[in-house]
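Reminder to self: tokens first, then the designed residues, so the page reads top to bottom the way the pipeline ran.
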């Protein structure tokens, strides 16, 4: 049952090819089969444009499999006290091993593990080194999976990339994914009353090529405000049934205010990096 839940979740948003190649989830569900040369990868890097669901994918892996989930950011591992950051990293990985099977997830991983240089502060270099040492120690069937997410994979340290052999580009959603997400936004709990039939929704999907999931949410939120703005000064006294449904015109007006966050040049850079160092999700 856990395997089915993970499969459905991952296939829906970008890790389907990795799942089919049995590189992320199955090794942690069947450690008796994945040993030796079949040992699971130590880490997975999710990269791509902002707002494509990288963080939610990591949570999905942990929640659907019921693994312990350790989510952190760079600020959680840094301290003004000398040596304190290294102690925090050590404690993190010890707790992950004690609670195995577990997932250690670092969001915006480039903020902590960026490329090292001569201008780095000594404390920053020591913290990076400590983190990399513990990533190396995840092998040997410890059943601890490291997952990182970033919008800037080209800024990551080479030594870190060696420790995350699975690097997956999470691209912008295609038309089918945008339609499913739009339906969920409009028809789910908290959605707005609309007059949008299937044909009108397909027009919105076609007009939002290049939008991420977060862009699409912002667009829907902006469109939902249209009927309230149409009431003008009457909004303070109007009854709920006096608010007209959200229309296609509201979405057209919202698109003039809400633009996609990623441009063509940035998307091309992600594709180029994926072709050199990683693989592309669905």
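Designed residues (282 positions):
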């Amino acid at each position: 049952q856990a395997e089915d839940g993970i499969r459905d979740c991952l296939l829906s948003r970008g890790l389907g090819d990795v799942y089919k190649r049995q590189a992320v989830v199955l090794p942690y569900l069947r450690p008796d089969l994945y040993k030796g040369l079949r040992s699971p990868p130590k880490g997975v890097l999710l990269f791509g444009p902002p707002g494509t669901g990288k963080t939610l994918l990591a949570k999905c892996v942990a929640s659907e499999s019921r693994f312990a989930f350790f989510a952190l950011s760079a600020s959680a591992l840094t301290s003004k006290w000398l040596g304190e950051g290294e102690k925090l990293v050590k404690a993190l990985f010890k707790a992950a091993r004690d609670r195995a099977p577990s997932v250690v997830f670092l969001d915006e991983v480039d903020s902590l593990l960026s490329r090292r240089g001569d201008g780095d502060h000594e404390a920053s270099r020591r913290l990076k080194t400590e983190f990399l040492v513990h990533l190396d120690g995840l092998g040997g069937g410890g059943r601890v999976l490291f997952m990182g997410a970033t919008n800037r994979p080209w800024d990551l340290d080479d030594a870190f990339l060696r420790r995350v052999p699975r690097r997956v580009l999470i691209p912008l959603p295609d038309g089918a994914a945008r339609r499913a997400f739009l339906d969920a936004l409009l028809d789910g709990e908290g959605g707005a009353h609309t007059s949008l039939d299937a044909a009108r929704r397909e027009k919105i999907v076609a007009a939002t090529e290049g939008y991420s999931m977060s862009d699409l949410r912002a667009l829907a939120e902006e469109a939902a405000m249209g009927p309230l703005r149409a009431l003008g000064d009457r909004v303070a006294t109007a009854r709920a049934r006096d608010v007209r449904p959200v229309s296609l015109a509201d979405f057209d007006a919202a698109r003039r205010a809400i633009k996609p966050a990623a441009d063509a040049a940035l998307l091309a850079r992600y594709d180029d990096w994926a072709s050199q160092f990683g693989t592309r999700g669905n």
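The first helix runs from residue 2 to 12.
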